[in-house]
UniProtKB/TrEMBL annotation:
Keywords: Hydrolase, Manganese, Metal-binding. This is Amidohydrolase. The Mn(2+) ion enhances activity. It comes from Proteiniborus ethanoligenes. One of its GO terms (molecular function) is metal ion binding. GO terms for biological process: diaminopimelate biosynthetic process. Pfam families: M20_dimer, Peptidase_M20. Its cofactor is Mn(2+). SUPFAM superfamilies: Bacterial exopeptidase dimerisation domain, Zn-dependent exopeptidases. The keyword Hydrolase applies. It comes from the Bacteria. Residues 190-281 form the Peptidase M20 dimerisation domain. NCBIfam families: amidohydrolases.
Length: 395
């Protein structure tokens, strides 16, 4: 029998070192040359076979177990954010970007799991695919990886991933959060351009004022959720950018509006997209203006498999106490493109709560002072390992 806790703790210093070295070279989006080079170098040292996708920025490793069986995919996002770091850490990034969402820890955990799995191939059947994914923050790397065959040859039968930090606000530090179904929302973006007729501010009657039109649109959009969606169904329509005009005495020709939409139900998602345009069209026509409208479908809702999650929880009890496993009763309205992988194969995504204080307080994800508690990283490795080996040997 493999003592997973001991094995994870035995390489704790390596896991932390991987995290720190990745933390110093954060890259953004789908262009991660240094990050990909670093990860492939570690896989080379371990003797793990791999290939790259998405122009070399995504890495798919393969570990073959002892005998035929199913294949499980383990996913880690590896991109950073265009945030200038202010943590004051000895290994702080200096390139203007930052791992302000814990993806450096995700990559380190997957490297740790890969090392132990590769050294213990005789302890499990089937295959493990390592899915190192770029572009989770934007514009999304899971979908192009899937389109380029990441989930095939061999076909992935189940998939698992985790997120560090404090995304699940009700999950105490050191504990994990699990969800038996919809865990995170779909995210979409609306782009609206209101076209009016500019004029001098002293002669508004000569204009078709796009600022007035846009103001009505913003207010009317709030009624979609408050008056058209069932009150017990989670949905969000938030206007996050409104831009128009360039001087105090000039009514402009155009105002642009942008915003985010979050939903859990796919039919509601499409209904909101349709209603936004209907509202924009009606208001602009009433004022004699016109509009352009673009609705960008981004990430679908992240939905865990109830059956797989139950199996994972039983495995997790071998690593942490039952009291340290917190069931999330309601989803969060943040989004994750892990959802694309979970559409391809059943699996689970879980949270490991490990925020670390900077200047005496915890800072949220995407903040210049966000940090994670490295002493919990071994636990992420052990949880992924136990869940992987148990599932493969039962299937």
């Amino acid at each position: 029998m493999l003592n997973i806790i001991d094995r994870a703790k035995n390489i704790e210093n390596e896991i932390i070192n991987w995290r720190r070295e990745l933390h110093q070279i954060p890259e953004v989006g789908l262009n991660l040359p240094q990050t990909a080079k670093y990860i492939t170098a570690q896989l080379d040292k371990m003797g793990i076979e791999y290939h790259t996708l998405v122009k070399g920025n995504a890495i798919v490793g393969l570990i073959k177990g002892n005998g035929k069986g199913k294949t499980i995919g383990l996913r880690a996002d590896i991109d950073g954010l265009p945030v200038k770091e202010e943590t004051g850490l000895d290994f702080q990034s200096t390139n203007g970007n930052m791992h302000a969402c814990g993806h450096d820890g995700h990559a380190a955990i997957l490297l740790g799991a890969a090392k132990i799995l590769n050294e213990n191939r005789d302890k499990f059947r089937g295959n493990v695919k390592l899915l190192f994914q770029p572009g989770e923050e934007y514009p999304g790397g899971a979908k192009p990886m899937i389109e380029e065959g990441a989930m095939e040859s061999p076909k992935v039968d189940a998939v698992m991933g985790l997120h560090l930090g404090n995304l699940g606000k009700g999950i105490p530090t050191g504990k994990i959060g699990v969800c038996y179904g919809a865990m995170m929302a779909a995210v979409d973006v609306m782009h609206i351009k209101i076209k009016g007729k500019g004029a001098h501010g002293a002669y508004p009657h000569q204009s078709i004022d796009p600022i007035v039109i846009a103001s009505e649109v913003v207010l009317a959009l709030q009624t979609i959720v408050s008056r058209e969606i069932n009150p017990v169904e989670p949905a969000v329509v938030s206007v996050t950018r409104i831009e128009g005009g360039f001087n105090h005495n000039i009514i402009p020709d155009i105002v642009e509006i942008q915003g985010t939409i979050r939903t859990l139900n796919e039919s509601t998602r499409h209904r909101i997209a349709k209603r936004i345009e209907e509202i924009v069209k009606g208001i602009t026509m009433a004022h004699g203006g016109s509009y352009e409208y673009k609705y960008e479908y981004c990430y679908p809702a992240l939905v865990n498999s109830e059956e797989f999650t139950k199996t994972f929880v039983e495995s997790a009890k071998k690593i942490v106490s039952e009291e340290d496993i917190v069931e999330m009763k309601t989803p969060v309205m943040g989004a994750e493109d892990m959802s694309f992988f979970l559409r391809e194969a059943p699996g689970t995504f879980f949270y490991l709560s490990n925020p670390r204080e900077i200047d005496g307080q915890y800072y949220p994800h995407h903040n210049p002072k966000f940090d994670i508690d490295e002493s919990q990283l071994w636990k992420g490795v052990a949880l992924v390992l136990q869940g992987t080996i148990d599932w493969l040997n039962k299937n």
